[in-house]
Specification:
Largest sheet: 5 strands, mixed
Distance between the termini: 25 Å
Structural class: alpha/beta
CATH architecture: 4-Layer Sandwich
Mean pLDDT: 92
Number of domains: 1
Length: about 170
């Protein structure tokens, strides 16, 4: 099972970007689950993601309009292959470090995924992971990015790959 993790798309906030980048659209087709950490920036962009993937798990971000703030939760919890995943945008804690996010959800998650920082990273803890996919259109100190996450059943571990976009 492949989980595409992305967020902070800011498509309507970004001059010259009017839709989901083609490379991301291809990844959406391959993913069993798509996790979006918020900041779609418009209902139209949210609908575009919803229509292109079979299972979208999304939260609201601080740049999402009121319509999406009302529609999407601040925190979403779900399981994949028995692994507990928590998703949030992260802005409710300012510009939180991974350790702050892990402390918030430790014990209820095997993996916490958050956005807001526009900077991709994977931080392992003794009992789980915190990851941030970066941003596909407005990266900070990085290239545009997203992540592909897979649970390796036979090995009982995650395979986490950062995808650098053109």
């Amino acid at each position: 099972m492949h989980i595409l993790v992305l967020g902070d798309t800011h498509i309507d906030d970004n001059p010259g970007v009017s839709s989901i980048p083609p490379q991301v659209a291809q990844l959406l087709q391959r993913a069993s689950v798509v996790v979006h950490t918020g900041d779609f920036t418009s209902p139209a962009v949210y609908r575009e993601y919803s229509e292109q993937c079979s299972c979208l798990r999304a939260v609201r971000g601080n740049h999402d309009p009121e319509q999406l703030q009302d529609l999407l939760p601040a925190v979403q919890r779900f399981s994949v292959a028995g692994q507990r995943i928590v998703v949030t945008h992260g802005d409710q804690w300012g510009r939180p470090r991974p350790s702050r996010i892990w402390r918030e959800f430790q014990g209820e998650a095997d993996m916490v995924i958050y956005g807001h920082l526009h900077l991709p990273f994977v931080v392992p803890f003794s009992d789980g992971y915190v990851l941030n996919p970066g941003s596909i259109t407005q990266p900070r100190s990085s290239h545009p990015s997203c992540m592909l996450v897979s649970w390796l059943e036979g090995e009982n571990q995650w395979d986490i790959e950062t995808i650098w976009l053109d």
